[in-house]
Amino acid sequence: MDIPEQDGDDSIFAGLESVGDERPTSEARLRIEKGELTVDVSVPSSHASQFLEAATAALLVIGALVAPMLTLTAAPEGLPHWATVVMITVQLGILIWVSVNIFTGQAVLRRRPTG
């Protein structure tokens, strides 16, 4: 397999470390490492925008599930129930607002026809 050539200035990426014996590719890649758990996903570059949208949606869903649980766990016992409900509502409202702002601007992420 040929090693693809890099376009542009190599000094931009000079400080980045490669993991293992990776080589630059034309694929869109996402790597998540947490202790012994490693997830590495790659897709063709033509699908990079859909890949980014899927990863963003997954993170928003995780945030919507984890944020209220953490709030309930971290809330002190003497805190009124209405205050806990308000905090969870604000957290979910922010996630909804971010989601709407991200996904209503999808046209920016898509390739526009040139011609």
Describe this structure in words.
The chain has one domain (13-109). A hairpin with a 2-residue loop joins strand 1 (27-34) and strand 2 (37-44). The protein has 3 helices and 2 strands; from the N terminus they run ββααα. It is α+β, with helices and mostly antiparallel strands and 115 residues long. Helix 1 packs antiparallel against helix 2 (81-103). It has helices at residues 48-74, 81-103, 106-109; strands spanning 27-34, 37-44. It has a two-stranded antiparallel ribbon with strand order 1-2.
Distance between the termini: 33 Å
The low-pLDDT segments are: none
Structural class: alpha+beta
Strand order of the largest sheet: 1-2
Largest sheet, in brief, is: 2 strands, antiparallel
Query: What is the count of distinct domains?
Result: 1
- What is the radius of gyration? 20 Å
Morphology call: elongated
Percent strand equals: 5-15%
Helical content (DSSP H or I, runs of 4+): 40-55%
Q: What order do the helices and strands follow?
A: EEHHH
Number of beta-strand segments: 2
Number of helices: 3
Mean pLDDT: 76
